[in-house]
Write the structure tokens for this entry.
Amino acid sequence: MAELTFPRLPFFIQHRFPGLLLTAAIAGGAAWLAQRPEIAGLGLGALTLAIMLGILVGNTLYPSLAPHCDAGVLLAKQKLLRLGVILFGFRITLQQIADVGASGVLIDVLTLSSTFFITCLLGIRLLKLDRETVWLIGAGSSICGAAAVLATEPVVKASPTKVAVAVATVVLFGTLAILIYPPLWLVAQHYFPQLSVAQFGIFTGSTIHEVAQVVAAGHAVGPEAENSAVIAKMLRVMMLAPFLLCLSGWLRRAPQQTPRQGITFPWFALGFIGVALFNSLHLLPAAWVADINQVANLLLAMAMAALGLTTRFGALRQAGVKPLLLGLMVFVWLIVGGGAINLLAQHFLQ
């Protein structure tokens, strides 16, 4: 295949343009499908469809395009996702953040700590998996998916193969959550009629793996659920740095452990909070905010397309059944145990 070049573009853009173009095309296709009545009737939004189409293309056509597109796809998966989340702050106000309040913080702390502990217990004691793989899956499941896996890797010094297995596992079950949570809301309304849309959004943000997946699942339920889900998720993401500091400190005290590398703080979570605080002042015209929200939608759809493109079923097949079984058990815990934590916290702190 001939080398793709775009001579009129600066090198920074030229190098990444094919991958960005591919993710934008998938995002556009997802937006078009989401407007079709037969698709809309299934409750599948543009963000959900973007990651589904990305997975489809990623496991069929993308391997032959990867040499030309990887740089742009990686940019969309990392930088555009963070920028989209920051711009999402223009949909949030200080009052909405306050509404999440102490119960949201407590729910995130309890869900994070219990999920990581249960992952270690099941993975190491029951399934006899190696510690590094278990720690990575635990971090990804309890905090923020692939980003937490990559942030934890230098702390536990895991091999690239173990990182790939953990990333594929948390992305797989986080993607399943996008499909499961909207109908789960309908079930929750029947059995817990006192549960509000905003409270279900907090449950979504405190239990789904990836930021992008939280946005997609919340978006499918409704705007109020989406807003509270993103706020709860950002509070959870901000716990990544304290978590890594605690894990690093524990590993240093553990026998036969070598010194670990430094900690990376998720600054984009602070950017999200800062933009939300600015938006609370209502300094920008409503038309400008609407345009910014459209840009944020595009960036998030491109990021989810990139996430799908880089999800490889082959990595899961090579790892065997045990990491998948661990991911499944933790996924069930997040829904059942995380749901119980949400109901109890919201009951006692109301």
In short: Residues 94-126 form the longest helix (33 residues). The mean pLDDT is 84. The chain has 15 helices and no strands. The CA atoms of residues 110 and 341 lie 7 Å apart.
